[in-house]
Automatic annotation (TrEMBL):
Organism whose genome encodes this protein: Lysobacter capsici AZ78
Keywords: ATP-binding, Ligase, Nucleotide-binding
Family that this chain belongs to: In the C-terminal section; belongs to the MurCDEF family.
EC number: 6.3.2.29, 6.3.2.30
Enzyme superclass (EC): ligase
UniProt function note: Catalyzes the ATP-dependent polymerization of arginine and aspartate to multi-L-arginyl-poly-L-aspartic acid (cyanophycin; a water-insoluble reserve polymer).
Name of the protein this chain belongs to: Cyanophycin synthetase
Length: 929
């Protein structure tokens, strides 16, 4: 049994709309061993190792269903068992995950399964799958156990506890997790910004951050004051608040002198400690004070000695100037029964199902460590001692839950004076969220009458004791924090638009981002060539997956997100957001088929459909593509907007008559008009010939892209004037849309460069080449990615055959598994088979050489169509190219000697400035004319 492949989906994917892990698992010989054949020994051993499996319902949808499934008939196969084990292991570690799905990959791959299960934390989820395999293999009979599948030193209980600790080190802490849950209840999105507790709530410019329970609004000065126990004590005392007297010392002799000066019992604690570490209470002898000093010195250079205040330890939580919760904390202890030893009593206490490792559960397990031994030694006990019935033996000097203490909610009984005292103390330090450690004999009585003292102010108080007390009413400690950061009705989300499809994604995304900018927004855009914030590229590269979406939503300037969403990202890691306001699918065409298990257009459509499945406000669908049209049955968006270039489309006509939203292309006396329909309104938007990107309406693919962009903008609430202005000012220059129908007219011939790399895209550009007025020849440079099937390369040849006067076949720089000239030869051979004369075909494998040959071939009136892969390099090559006649003429004007047609690089660079000056002068004259 081994994992062949693993994919971790961070957002909506083909398998679920939430984070899941998919394992491609090969059972190998174990395919012949379903659970029924493995027998009761295996099943009973598995349930004993993970008792929670007995509650899994599986297909029976009731507790015990999974165990029943394993025992009945043939039972079930180990891939399905691993799914449940991975889920239960995460449950044991404190995560609430439930979803799983296991299926055979295909009939021609027996024993190979797709195992999908939900996860809460990436590393924890991966580790759960790996540990699950070891557990299953350890329970197998030795004669069928795969060799090397279980380490020789594997011991289940130790491995389980190790996994829990591993998971907890990576999981959100109890306080942070409670804040995340509170945000989710208010539909506020969140992002984890590091591996600890730094969380961003909200998107873009609306974001707020927390680190544990410290918020982005928490004053740095206040945190510093709270950390300085001496200064805190002085400030609170100056306001007349109850605080113990204290002295700051740096050595043990100073601690002893301070204790004598203060008189009575004292407390020693670190100057800037936390979580109760290093604190020793109720000590008076020189020996105990010295030991207490050394314990505190382990956590801080300086130590505070203060008067001991008798009573119960309370934590009073104040948020935004209001006391939210009060909890009495009791140190970890055992209660004697006259029969059991302290060690046995600790074991008995730890059997409480509420206790677990670390923060796994409501309570933490008690430990008989050095501090427990010190506490027992003070009362003359050891772990083997048997306390009297009812005798309380404390194993900790402080009441922190993380060391085994218990918490009792006392919010309803706290005296108003004590409530006001806590609020005054936190405000005096300047904290928006603060915890007051208050010692009082009775929290229900005023400190003014019975005494009491503030021991400490916490700048990052834990919420665990309040949201899940051992006894009493749980309190919502996190909700008030979120309400403080996001007032009721305040925005937390930026509008998100996602665009997918086979062709046109990048251009449409750029159009939409440009429109939103014209509408006054600051857009964050992800595309195949980078991430753009307000029109400026901040990251270069193919950025169409979850990582780039996260970049945009984390940027504090962004108030509109436009996400190009590609097939690769969806297959590899899912979407980067759980939902989008507007999702659009442009088309489903043959591209990337045969890769990653996607062999048909139907399978490709199912992947790209995810974008509209998670759309909440509007799904924009190309009604002219049958695969896209069918997606209307899979979206829960409030509105479906159909886009069609066919004004007689029957379904769209009925949709419009029913008051639905649509964008249609209508013929008029002045050309074609992009028209919007919504709730019975008919809204003429813009003539296509007024959109520069459409080349006066001839580039029909960009007409369609503009229609989708307009429909999305309208669905995002962008004003009509901004949509019109955006479309009229968006062109296909290399600056605005690199590799998307870039036109260069400065040579005697016209050059068009495009990134088209599949048959549909190549065919669209070939159609455009036929619609353009070309008095001369049509020349094309084409190729196909090396990882495409031969039939895909044949389809590219079919898309251009018979439409050009000369064909130059090349390859990409990245061969992707092909031989050096294999791709161009396949295309050339197919062109010949389609009737193209061999004399009209050139095979020039290198892209730079192929582009140079096409440019040198160009003459006045010709059209050179270049399908490029290295876009920036090819565009520079096009605009820097110097036709021989132009070079000679410029050289003569500059009184330079004639140059040979083949210029070396230095001479070319020298000439470039002269040529640019000549052109600049001509442009200046034209503008002045």
């Amino acid at each position: 049994m081994r994992i062949l492949d693993r994919s971790v989906y961070v957002g909506p994917s083909l398998y679920a709309h939430f984070p899941v892990i998919r394992l491609e698992l090969d059972l190998q010989a174990l395919e012949a061993w379903p659970t029924a054949r493995l027998g009761s020994a295996f099943i009973d051993g598995l349930v004993e190792a993970l008792p929670g499996l007995a509650e899994h319902g599986c297909s029976y949808r009731e507790p015990g269903g999974f165990v029943r499934r394993m025992r009945e008939d043939e039972g079930t196969w180990l891939g399905h068992v691993l799914e449940h084990v991975a889920i239960e292991l995460q449950n044991v570690a404190g995560e609430n995950v439930t979803f799983g799905k296991t299926r055979s990959v295909s009939d021609d791959r027996p024993g190979v399964y797709s195992v999908v299960y939900e996860y809460a934390q990436r590393e924890e989820g991966i580790a759960a799958g790996e540990l699950g395999i070891k557990l299953l293999c350890s329970l197998l009979p030795e004669d069928i156990r795969p060799a090397g599948s279980v380490p020789a030193d594997f011991e289940w209980e130790s491995a389980r506890d190790g996994f829990i600790r591993y998971a907890q080190r990576r999981a959100l802490g109890p306080s942070t997790a409670s804040l995340v849950r509170a945000a989710e209840e208010r539909n506020i999105p969140w992002l984890r910004l590091n591996n600890q507790s730094l969380i961003q709530f909200g998107h873009g410019k609306y974001q707020q951050r927390i680190q544990a329970t410290v918020t982005g609004r928490t004053s740095h000065i206040a945190v510093e004051l709270a950390s300085d126990k001496e200064e805190t004590n002085k400030i609170l005392a100056s306001l007349g608040l109850p605080v113990p007297r204290q002295e700051l010392v740096t050595d043990s002799s100073g601690a002893i002198r301070a204790a004598k000066k203060l008189g009575g019992s004292v407390v020693t604690k670190p100057y800037n400690g936390n979580h109760g570490r290093g604190i020793t209470i109720d000590i008076s002898s020189d020996e105990d004070v010295r030991a207490g000093f050394e314990a505190a010195r382990e956590h801080s250079r300086s130590v505070i000695v203060e008067t001991f205040v008798g009573g119960d330890d309370h934590r009073l939580l104040v948020i935004n100037g209001e006391l939210i919760a009060a909890t009495k904390r009791t140190p970890g202890h055992v209660v004697g029964d006259g029969l059991r030893s302290i060690a046995e009593l600790v074991e008995l206490v730890n059997q409480d199902p509420r206790r677990g490792v670390g923060h796994e559960k409501v309570l933490t397990r008690l430990e008989l460590d050095s501090q427990a031994e010190l506490m027992m030694e003070r009362v003359g006990y050891t772990a083997a001692s048997i306390p009297k019935p009812g005798e309380i033996v404390y194993l900790r000097s402080t009441a922190n839950l993380s060391t085994g203490g218990t918490a009792t909610d006392v919010t309803d009984i706290i005296h108003p004076d004590n409530r006001d005292m806590a609020v005054r103390a936190v405000l005096a330090i300047g904290l928006d969220v603060g915890g007051v450690d208050f010692i009082s004999p009775n929290i229900a009585e005023s400190y003014k009458n019975i005494g009491g003292g503030i021991c400490e102010i916490n700048a990052a108080p834990g919420f665990r004791m309040h949201v899940a007390p051992s006894e009493g009413t749980p309190r919502d400690a996190a909700g008030p924090v979120i309400d403080m950061l996001f007032a009721p009705g305040a925005p937390s989300r930026v509008p998100i638009a996602a665009i997918t499809g086979t062709n046109g994604k990048t251009t449409t995304a750029r159009m939409l981002a440009h429109i939103t900018k014209m509408g006054g927004y600051t857009p964050g855009l992800t595309t195949t060539d980078g991430v753009y914030i307000d029109g400026q590229r901040t990251v270069e590269g193919d950025m169409t997956g979850p990582v780039s979406a996260r970049m945009v939503l984390s940027d504090p300037h962004v108030d509109m997100a436009v996400l190009e969403t590609a097939r690769g990202g969806l297959l590899r890691a899912g979407m980067g957001v759980s939902e989008v306001n507007v999702g659009a699918v442009l088309n489903i065409q043959s591209d990337h088929l045969g890769l990653k298990g996607i062999d048909t257009l139907e399978q490709l459509a199912e992947i790209k459909r995810v974008v509209v499945e998670v759309a909440t406000d509007c799904a924009v669908l190309n009604a002219d593509d049958p695969h896209v049209l069918k997606m209307s049955a899979y979206t829960d968006a409030k509105v479906i907007c159909y886009v069609t270039m066919n004004p007689s489309h029957a379904l769209v006509r009925e949709h419009i008559r029913a008051g639905g939203r649509a964008c249609a292309l209508e013929a008029g006396i002045n050309g074609h008009m992009i028209t919007l329909y919504d709730k019975g309104s008919h809204i003429p938007l813009l003539w296509t010939h007024l959109i520069p990107a459409t080349m006066e309406g001839r580039a029909l693919h960009n007409v369609q892209n503009a229609m989708v962009a307009a429909a999305m903008a309208f669905s995002l609430g962008i004003k009509l004037d901004a949509i019109r202005h955006g479309l009229r000012t968006f062109d296909t220059t290399f600056f605005q849309a690199p590799g998307r129908m870039n036109v260069y007219n400065e040579h005697p011939f016209k050059v068009v460069m495009d990134y088209g790399h599949n048959a549909h895209a190549v065919g669209v550009m070939s159609d455009l080449a036929q619609r353009l007025d070309v008095p001369g020849r049509r020349i094309v440079v084409l190729a196909g990615p090396g990882d495409r099937r031969d039939e895909d390369l044949h389809a590219i040849a079919e898309a251009v055959a018979g439409r050009f006067d000369h064909y130059i076949c090349r390859r990409d720089d990245s061969l992707r598994g092909r031989d050096g000239d294999e791709v161009p030869r396949i295309i050339a051979k197919k062109l010949v088979a389609l009737g193209v004369a061999e004399t009209a075909i050139s095979i020039i494998p290198d892209e730079q050489q192929a582009v140079d040959a096409a440019l040198r071939m160009g003459q006045a009136g010709d059209l050179v169509l270049v399908f490029a892969d290295a876009l920036a390099r090819s565009w520079k090559q096009i605009i820097h190219f110097q036709p021989e006649g132009v070079v000679a003429a410029v050289a003569q004007r500059a009184e330079l000697p004639p140059l040979e047609p083949a210029l070396d690089e230095a001479a070319f660079a020298a000439m470039e400035g002269v040529v640019r000056d000549e052109r600049g002068l001509r442009f200046e004259r034209e503008e002045s004319d």
